[in-house]
Request: fold
Amino acid sequence: MLPEHMRHVLDCGVVEVLSFLLSIQEVRSLAVVMQSLMQLLKKYKTMSAENEAANRVEQSGGLAQLEKLQHHPNQIIYKMAVDIIENHFATEDLDELLIGPSEDKTSLQNDVSIFKY
Reply:
């Protein structure tokens, strides 16, 4: 995706919509939303030193929702929330945000792959 396309995606409010959708209850739909958010954050991070997409997630309440999802009973949702926070939200207080056992990336990728269409 070209930088101008990425800018357009951000300007259209996609990050804010995904942040809002982090509150849905249905597990499969929630996993799709989280996977979309992960891909968007990953792509934007590779294009820019300052991760504006992560800032927008935080400003729109998405980070707070991700913190709540660390308590989700579904392990895939829990792992995805931890992965997003670990990889896209640098903070000195990371230990306060993350709860539960740490998982290796291979395990997470294998678990999340069941949601790919």
Observations:
- Residues 6 and 44 are 7 Å apart (CA to CA).
